[in-house]
Write a structure and sequence with these properties.
Layout lengths: L8 H8 L3 H8 L7 H11 L8 H18 L5 H7 L7 H17 L3 H11 L7 H17 L3 H13 L4 H17 L3 H17 L3 H17 L3 H15 L6 H18 L2 H13 L5 H13 L3 H11 L6 H16 L6 H15 L4 H18 L2 H16 L1
GO molecular function, one term: DNA binding
Protein name: Helix-turn-helix protein
InterPro entries: Cro/C1-type_HTH, Lambda_DNA-bd_dom_sf, TPR-like_helical_dom_sf
Length: 395
């Protein structure tokens, strides 16, 4: 708009009282203007008629194309990064491109960049409801990844009351499912995820349908509805093999099926699913842990110990190190009466997972601890943890 009106940076600076270098940095998205400065720009450049501006409409059209590709999980982020202009003619055009950039940053897990954009957008008002809803949806996901679940939940509850388009509503409900699952609100998670699944089926959004069914299976697993969980995981595999998706995603489903069978204590089937996962090039540390546990339960102690040794060469987080230490002690113990040291290890691992609010993992490690206490005949301590198990099972 400045160029269209034949104004140089210095001329615009003189008319508005804003430093010309600051204006230039604002034009390329490297600086912000305060409310007074924006009003001065509006006055000189007549930007209040932005809704009729061609550049603004072009920005909206590009955003709509971009958003559909995001929803259908076919987006080429590099392509859209290069489509975002460095110079913006109007404030609202700038906001559209900022929301695009924000969603890209979410996809790239660039939290610092997201926070900077949130700070800029908070100074203005996004007038386009579709773009505003998309922005708030992904702000909810940013809050979720930063473990600010309650704040994210408020955003999504508000979005569900708004008049969103069907494609947008599907992705909003899908994202909300992650939050409910993390908060252990399993019934609420199932409600929004089953609704999202229907929308993805109606709109032939197969990649999102794959992800949604995988999340539904995970919720069913957390609820200990193993039959339903297995059904959805197998449905995921059947669908995933027809789609152009990362093989690691298929491997992840097989790995989850292996975990499901471990929880059911069907160890031969758990091993079979783990072998299927490995065929897809899966080298995740959880696969190693599952394989160690399966071999331990099948009394293949030497094989389990070899896997533990190999796993120690990988740089692991504290949780994994604690589990490896416990599994190693269990393998050396075999079927003998446990020592107080091993029981202390089991308590430490259980306490660690209990703090994460992951009920399924907590129950798994609690069962290990209870088994050790029963073998030790440590009845006083056993009663305490049996009561703990009752509390967890009620959740």
């Amino acid at each position: 708009m400045r160029v269209a009106k034949g104004l140089s940076l210095r001329a615009l600076a003189k008319l508005t009282g804003i430093n010309y270098q600051h204006i230039r940095r604002f034009e390329i998205g490297e600086a912000d203007l305060n409310e007074y400065q924006l009003k001065q720009l509006d006055k000189v450049l007549d930007l209040n008629n932005y809704n009729n501006d061609v550049s603004y409409q072009q920005a909206i059209e590009l955003f709509e194309k971009f958003y559909i590709e995001v929803v259908y999980d076919t987006v080429d982020l590099a392509y859209y990064k290069h489509r975002i202009p460095e110079v913006y003619i109007t404030i609202n055009e700038h906001l559209v491109y900022l929301v695009m950039k924000y969603i890209i940053y979410i996809q790239e897990n660039y939290v610092e960049g997201c926070l900077k954009i949130e700070n800029i957008i908070s100074q203005y008002e996004i007038s386009n409801l579709f773009i505003y809803s998309a922005y708030m949806d992904y702000m909810g996901m940013r809050l979720f990844t930063c473990d600010q679940h309650e704040e994210a939940l408020k955003i999504y509850k508000s979005l569900l009351k708004s008049n969103c388009e069907k494609t947008e509503l599907g992705i909003i409900k899908y994202h909300l499912g992650f939050i409910y699952k993390d908060l252990n609100y399993f019934n609420e998670a199932m409600e929004v995820l089953l609704s999202a699944k229907e929308i993805f089926m109606d709109t032939a959004n197969l990649k999102r349908l794959f992800g949604c069914m995988m999340l539904i299976a995970s919720v069913e697993l957390r609820k200990r509805n193993y039959k339903n969980a297995e059904y959805y995981y197998i449905s995921c595999i059947n669908l995933g093999k027809t789609l152009d998706i990362d093989k690691n995603e298929i491997a992840k489903v097989y790995r989850n099926l292996s975990w499901l069978m471990i929880r059911k204590k069907v160890y031969d089937k758990a091993q079979k699913y783990l072998e299927e996962a490995n065929e897809f090039g899966n080298t995740h540390i959880l696969s190693r842990l599952y394989n160690i546990w399966i071999n331990y339960k099948l009394e293949n102690y030497s094989e389990a110990l070899r896997d533990i040794t190999k796993s120690r060469y990988i740089k692991n987080e504290q949780r994994i190190v604690l589990v490896l230490d416990l599994f190693e002690s269990l393998c050396y113990l075999e079927n003998k009466i446990p020592s107080n040291k091993i029981i202390s290890q089991a308590i430490k691992v259980y306490d660690f997972h209990r703090k994460t609010n992951d009920i399924d993992l907590s129950l798994f490690y609690l069962d290990i601890l209870i088994n050790l206490l029963e073998r030790k005949k440590a009845n006083d301590c056993l009663i305490i943890y049996l009561k703990e198990k009752i509390i967890l099972l009620e959740n």
